[in-house]
Design brief:
The complex is a heterodimer of chains A (365) and B (525). Chain A is an all-alpha fold. Chain A has a single domain, classed as ABC transporter involved in vitamin B12 uptake, BtuC (Orthogonal Bundle). By secondary structure, chain B is α/β, with parallel strands linked by helices. Helices cover 34% and strands 22% of the residues of chain B. Chain B has 18 helices and 22 strands. In chain B, helix 14 links the parallel strand 19 and strand 20. Chain B is globular, with a radius of gyration of 24 Å. The chains are: A mainly alpha (365), B alpha/beta (525). Chains A and B meet through helix 8 and helix 9 of A and strand 4, strand 5, helix 10, helix 11 and strand 18 of B.
């Protein structure tokens, strides 16, 4: 029989090695999976993980998809460190896209240089406003932010759907549920010519750096960390729990909102019914695989972005179903949780009961 | 009753070469001990000496790595408490395992290995409890009982199984001095009927008064055996700590201006089984230590939370710091007015377990120059931390060691040191030496006295009466959420305080309430 036993000292090496191990296990399972499907695994691997990034355009796509994952992942990690379990970055992203997109539509064909800054601002504020709802409910009524943030995801998607089916629908769009396309002044500049990647990735990397400084060097970041590690110590020190919850949710909401506006003002170029293939949810995995550390999250976001690209390539090149992307995401999270368990625990064999060598069995009487 | 009769009997329990090693610590190594029928055998040692582990091995909770257990001349491998109970071993734990929402008989029925009809069980509870002088009503709900009464339930639960060996783990830490005497009578009566008793404690006076024999543990090993009656506190302490007990001295000092004033503070406890504070009044002046005695669970936790600001008062003027009303300010704002505090719970409240000592300095020291414009100043934080470690002789691997790697005593030295070096005007300390080894306890008490001599006002909440008599200028008692008037230690006695601890101070001093001028204050005026 096997039993889990707590390790006396958790290995700090394994804390950093476990995401790599998880990625490796994911690859190995993928290998078996491709073989079982009757595909040549080496070819499938090439198609999935190498070909998508073997051109400048491919690198651009990788960075493009990294942008929202990185923004949401860094924002979520700030909250997770403070034990604020916001899982609704997807909804905050959608709301940011709606708010920023609304400003873009209001500017219309104008070539005002104010358009882009105001769109970005509106996107950030939109995400923050959406995250303020769970923050208010948690601090005022002690509701569970996991449920509230999740439910608000669906509400935001329905709001977007209503807008593009109704008031904001493009009159010349042949009844497609989408808005008018944004003008040039309302579209983000491309960073590398020949690709679709925008300045969004630069904002995202800069914010990852700012987030790192915030959590390591500022007193506010320290307070949030204490709240996550030892709530009683935070109360004893007089750190306001409410303030921490507000900061965590607003920061993440703002970053997710920025991700939303970067998407609609970038590759998409308009509002439409679906604007994110689950970036906000995938970012939860990104945050954990990056060990809640902004630098780690950059790598996590790149990996997750590659899974999205590879999934698309596998659909087109091998005729695999679209579920392949979700499957790899799931494998990655599953193996990460499994390897993380062994940071703190080890398997120990236990003898099944009766025989114990310490005491002689005979009676001395 | 023949007290010395057991000496010719065959031992009931013999432990030989017991060892228990955990990954990071050796709890027991080569421990041997024997107990005869009718013998009250003390297991004496400091916190962390391995007493509780040894008892858990006997009771089948913990499995030893080596060694043998000989019970009534048979080698036994005790793998579970149920087996221990079948053999006739009963244990009363230091921390009770009772369900508060259930009645006495329900709690006892849950722990019994056989099924007994309610009426019959209730009758037996009454019979046994009265026989041993521990009256309890089987139909009472546990949450309405005092800690002492709850302990009776635990003891009666053991006695119902007619044990041949009863293990008592630090039973007196929750009792008033009078209740201790009652407990001793019960234990002596049990022993006279042939029951063996293993009595675990670190209180030397008690062991000398009660026990026939003693095994002393130090660092997991047996450091000696003794007949406590023939020993002095000093000789037992030497066996226990391997050194001399030092005493603290309080030089008389005239207290100065009032620094902390609590005025008719009443607070309903937020915990349904907690104790509400009722009409608390107290004053602490510069340069004095007010000791607050009482059995834990009588409002200590609630008073601490109200004073620190973790729980806000209904009215700001109910708590005044340096003359300013602060009752509605949070802990950080009260710190800005010169208050520091040391909580009872060190790991998780007084310190963040996985953070380094340096960051744990920042926890409460942010207002002392470790933060500028929102940014942490690591060098200030580290040098403060280093100074605390050096001045308070904290044994650790430096300011980068994580808090959870320190022993309880060293972490307490660090926390007391941190709060001391933040230069408080008022310091509040809960259970300063609980679970701390004798050397560290001595250092901590002296640090508190030094603060007093520098003019700081201190409030010390403690369960150790000896400690309070040692370091307090005045002592008051918290019982049932009410605070007694305060008296000078020289003008009272342990017995007097003991009576107050059971809540009877209003009877002793008619019309007495801490809110009326106390004897001391009228003398001052």
């Amino acid at each position: 029989m096997l039993r889990l036993e707590r390790r006396a000292t958790p290995s700090s090496l394994m804390r950093f090695a476990s995401p790599l191990l998880a990625a490796l296990c994911m690859l190995m399972t993928g290998f078996l999976l491709f073989s079982a499907l009757g595909k040549d695994p080496m070819e499938a691997f090439y198609l999935f993980f190498v070909k998508p990034v073997s051109s400048t355009y491919g690198i651009g796509e990788l960075l493009l998809k990294t942008t929202p994952l990185l923004l949401c992942g860094v924002g979520l990690a700030l909250g997770f460190r403070a034990s604020v379990w916001n899982i609704g970055a997807e909804g905050q992203l959608t709301m940011g896209a709606i708010a920023g997109g609304g400003v873009a539509l209001w500017f219309g064909d104008s070539d005002s240089s104010l358009a882009m800054p105001l769109m970005v601002l509106a996107g950030i504020l939109g995400g923050m406003a959406w995250a303020a709802i769970p923050a208010f409910l948690r601090t005022r009524f002690n509701t569970n932010e996991i449920l509230v943030t999740l439910m608000l995801v669906y509400i935001s998607q329905l709001v977007l759907s209503w807008l593009v089916h109704g008031p904001w629908r493009d009159p010349e769009g042949q009844n497609y549920p989408q808005s008018q396309g944004f003008g040039d002044a309302e579209t983000m500049a491309v960073l590398i010519s020949g690709t679709r990647v925008t300045w969004g990735i630069v904002y995202a990397l800069a914010l990852a750096l700012v987030a790192w400084i915030f959590s390591q060097k500022t007193f506010a970041g320290f307070r949030m960390q204490v709240a996550g590690l030892a709530p009683a110590a935070a109360a004893y020190a007089g750190f306001s729990e409410k303030r921490n919850i507000w900061i965590a949710l607003l920061l993440c909401g703002g970053m997710a909102g920025l991700a939303g506006i970067c998407e609609v003002a970038g590759p998409i170029g308009r509002l439409q019914q679906q604007i994110s293939p689950g970036y906000g949810f995938a970012a939860i995995i990104v945050a954990w695989i990056g060990r809640l550390h902004p630098i780690g999250i950059i790598f996590g976001a790149l990996l997750m972005s590659l899974l999205y690209l590879g999934g698309e390539a596998a659909q087109m090149g091998m005729g695999l179903p679209s579920a392949i992307t979700g499957l790899f995401q799931g494998l990655l999270l599953f193996y990460l949780l499994a390897t993380d368990l062994f940071i703190n625990f080890r398997l120990k064999r236990v003898d099944s009961g009766k025989t114990r060598p310490t005491a002689p069995r005979e009676s001395v009487a | 009753m023949d007290q010395s009769g057991f000496e010719n009997l065959k031992p009931r329990l013999v432990l030989t070469g017991i060892a228990k090693r955990y990954p990071s610590v050796v709890a027991n190594e080569d421990v041997s001990l024997s107990v005869r029928p009718g013998e009250i055998h003390a297991v004496l040692g400091e916190n962390g000496a391995g007493k509780s582990t040894l008892m858990k091995i006997i009771y089948g909770v913990t499995k030893p790595d080596a060694g043998t257990i000989l019970w009534n001349d048979r080698y036994e491998t005790i793998t579970a408490p149920a087996q221990a109970r079948r053999l006739g071993i009963g244990m009363v734990f230091q921390h009770f395992s009772l369900f508060e929402t259930l009645t006495v008989w329900e709690n006892i029925a849950l722990a019994l290995d056989e099924h007994i009809p309610t009426a019959q069980l209730a009758a037996r509870i009454t019979e046994v409890s009265e026989k041993y002088g521990l009256p309890i009503d089987p139909y009472r709900l546990v949450h309405s009982m005092s800690v002492g009464e709850r302990q009776r339930v635990e003891i009666v639960r053991c006695l119902l199984q007619e044990p041949k060996l009863l293990i008592m783990d630090e039973p007196t830490s929750v009792l008033t001095p009078q209740a201790v005497l009652t407990l001793f009578k019960t234990l002596r009566r049990l022993a006279s009927e042939g029951c063996s008793i293993l009595y675990i404690s670190h209180k030397l006076d008690e062991i000398r008064a009660l026990c026939d024999t003693a095994t002393v543990l130090r660092g997991g090993r047996v450091s000696g055996t003794a007949i406590p009656r023939n020993e002095t506190n000093e000789s037992l302490a030497r066996l226990m700590i391997g050194g001399e007990l030092a005493e603290c001295h309080l030089t008389p000092r005239e207290p100065q201006e009032v620094r902390l004033e609590v005025d008719h503070l009443s607070l309903i406890s937020s915990d349904p089984f907690g104790t509400s504070l009722k009409d608390i009044c107290l004053k602490i002046r510069s340069g004095e230590i007010l000791g607050i005695a009482g059995v834990s669970g009588n409002g200590q936790k609630e008073l601490m939370a109200a004073l620190s600001g973790e729980r806000l008062s209904p009215d700001a003027s109910m708590i005044k710091l340096m003359g300013r009303p602060v009752g509605t300010l949070n802990p950080a704002k009260r710190r800005a007015h010169g208050l520091t505090f040391v909580p009872e719970e060190r790991l998780g409240r007084g310190a963040v377990p996985p953070m380094s000592l340096a960051y744990n300095a920042l926890l409460t020291g942010a207002q002392s120059g470790m933060v500028r414009r929102g940014m942490i100043l690591p060098s200030v934080m580290r040098s403060f931390s280093k100074a605390v470690i050096e001045r308070f002789n904290v044994k650790c691997g430096g300011e980068q060691s994580v808090a959870s790697s320190l022993s309880g005593g060293n972490l307490q030295k660090y926390i007391v040191g941190r709060e001391t070096m933040l230069q408080p005007k008022i310091m509040i300390v809960a259970q300063p030496t609980w679970g701390v080894d004798v050397g560290a306890a001595q250092l901590i008490r002296q640090a508190l006295i030094d603060l007093r001599d520098q003019g700081v006002g201190l409030l010390v909440i403690s369960e150790e009466l000896d400690e309070l008599f040692n370091i307090s200028d005045r002592i008051a008692v918290l019982a049932g959420g009410r605070l007694s008037p305060s008296v000078k230690p020289a003008e009272t006695s342990i017995e007097q305080i003991g009576i107050w601890m059971s809540g009877k101070f209003a009877d002793v001093m008619p019309g007495a309430s801490a809110c009326a001028p106390s004897r001391l204050e009228t003398a001052d005026a």
